[in-house]
Design goal:
143 residues, 69% helix
């Protein structure tokens, strides 16, 4: 097994991986009210989710978060793959922020109090894109 993590990737992979893994583990045991709330918020922005019942939706989200968190923490997962997963995940969260009424101040990107918990996930997008850029520029330097 070859370790593919560069020392410069460790801080962002540890911070995001631990955060996302913990979130996924907590969602694994979500009660019905929490599942309904998460499902309702997401279904308003991503209509395809409406076809899933809330418990199934939360279980899928939980599994995805656990898988992504583990991919970020495991040193043999390439930075390009882990970064792309993190960027896609955080882009989905930011899509919720941008498209859900009441998350932003009128006519602005500035978050409301309701939108702040999701808006601050922009740090994960930056970390994911940083991992992708690092992997792509490192590859081109070797070519």
């Amino acid at each position: 097994m070859k370790f593919r993590v560069k020392a410069r990737q460790i801080p962002s992979r540890l911070a995001t991986g631990a955060f996302i893994l913990n979130s996924g583990l907590h969602k694994r045991h979500a009660d019905e009210a929490t599942a309904a709330q998460l499902h309702g918020l997401t279904a308003g922005t991503y209509p395809v989710v409406k076809n899933l019942d809330p418990a199934t939706f939360v279980k899928l989200v939980s599994t995805g978060e656990i898988a992504l968190g583990a991919a970020l923490l495991l040193p043999f997962v390439p930075g390009l793959l882990a970064g792309a997963g993190l960027a896609a995940f955080s882009a989905g969260l930011l899509g919720l922020y941008l498209r859900t009424p009441g998350m932003r101040e009128e006519g602005s990107l500035a978050p409301t109090q309701q939108g702040l918990p999701i808006a601050k996930d922009v740090w994960m997008l930056g970390a994911g894109l940083g991992l992708v850029v690092d992997a792509l520029t490192d590859r081109s330097a070797k070519s």
